[in-house]
């Protein structure tokens, strides 16, 4: 059980760090630090332009919760409520962003489907966290 808890913690923490990359790229573009002329990054410019600073700040704050959850899981501390909060807020922000016209124009249908796959993975992680936290006897027995 301890190994599962650590594995889920690492995956959740890495997910949060992974989510910081698009936020950082958007912020870098808004600050004039990058100027994509072609390729994948250039394709994202309309979405970056449509994303406001307050939205980026809230998104960064929400995804910063995931590494905290991962750390709490690795350290053996309760994390389910914090994860659930981060999951619900992240899903709400995703829905808000995904409903924007710019988001629909920038991504292909296959890329849009990946969003649902990631939400499913987040739900599975929530179930795994709930399960390892509901079984305190299993934690002691496996140590």
Radius of gyration (CA) equals 17 Å
pLDDT < 50 runs, ≥5 residues: 138-143
Global mean pLDDT: 91
What is the tally of beta strands? Answer: 0
Helix coverage percent of residues? over 70%
The succession of helices and strands, N to C, reads HHHHHHHHH
Largest beta-sheet details: none
Number of discrete helical segments: 9
Instruction: Say what oligomer this is.
Output: single chain
* Whole-number count of domains: 1
Strand content: under 5%
N-end to C-end Cα span: 9 Å
Shape: elongated
Structural class: mainly alpha
Care to give the gist of this entry?
This protein has helices at 2-30, 39-43, 45-50, 53-63, 65-74, 80-98, 101-106, 109-134, 136-142. It is mainly α. It has one domain (2-142).
Describe the structure in your own words.
This protein is mainly α and 143 residues long. It has one domain (2-142). The protein is 83% helix and 0% strand. The protein contains 9 helices and no strands. The chain starts with a helix and ends with a helix.
Write the layout of secondary structure elements.
Elements: H1 2-30, H2 39-43, H3 45-50, H4 53-63, H5 65-74, H6 80-98, H7 101-106, H8 109-134, H9 136-142
Helix pairs in contact: 1-4, 1-5, 1-8, 4-6, 6-8
